[in-house]
Amino acid sequence: MFKKRDTLFFTFYLFTAVLAAQTETNLYRQADTIKLDSWVDSVYNSLSQDEKIGQLFMPIVESKSSWKTRIAGYINNQKIGGVLFSKGTLAMQAEMTNYLQSIAKTPLFVALDGEWGLSMRLSDAPRFPRNLITGAIHDEETLKQYGKEVARQCREMGIHINFAPSIDVHTNPDNPVIGTRSFGELPANVARQGIAIARGMEENGVMAVAKHFPGHGDTSEDSHRTLPTVSHDMARLDSVELYPFWQYVNAGLSGMMLGHLNVPALNTNDLPASLSINVGQKLLKEQMGFTGLTFTDGMAMKGVSNQSDMSVKALLAGNDVILGVIDQEKEFQEVKQAVEKGVISPAMLEEKVRKILTYKYILGVHRIKPINIRTLNRNIHAPESEWTQRKIYDKAVTLVKNNDSILPIRELDKNRIACVAIGAPEQNTFQKWLKKYAGVTAFQAATADSVMLKEFDTVIISVHSVPAVDSPALQQVIKSAAKSVLVLFDSPYTLDNIKPATDHASSVVVAYDNTDFAQMSAAQAVFGGIGFSGKLPVSAGGFEVNKGIDTQKTRLSYSLPEEVGILSESLQGVEKIAFEGIRQRAYPGCYVMVVKDGTVIYDKGFGNMEYASGAKVDAETVYDLASITKAAATVPAIMKLYDEKKIRLQDHIGKFVPETRGTNKANLTVRDALFHETGIVSFIPYYTTAIDPNSFNGSLFGKRSALHHARYAGAWGRTDYAFIPSFISDKPSATFHLPVARDLYASDDMHRALLKEVIATELRSKTYRYSCLNFMLLKEAVEHISKTGLDSFVKDNFYKKLGATTLTFRPLDHMPVNSIAPTENDPFFRKQQLRGYVHDEGAALFGGISGNAGLFSNANDLAKLSQMWLNGGEYGGERFLSEETVNLFTKTKSSNSRRGLGFDKPDPRNNNASPTSPLTPVSVYGHTGFTGTSFWVDPDNNMIYIFLSNRIFPERSPNRLSTLKIRERIQDELYKAMSIKELGTNQLGKN
Question: What is the pTM of this model?
Answer without folding.
Answer: 0.93
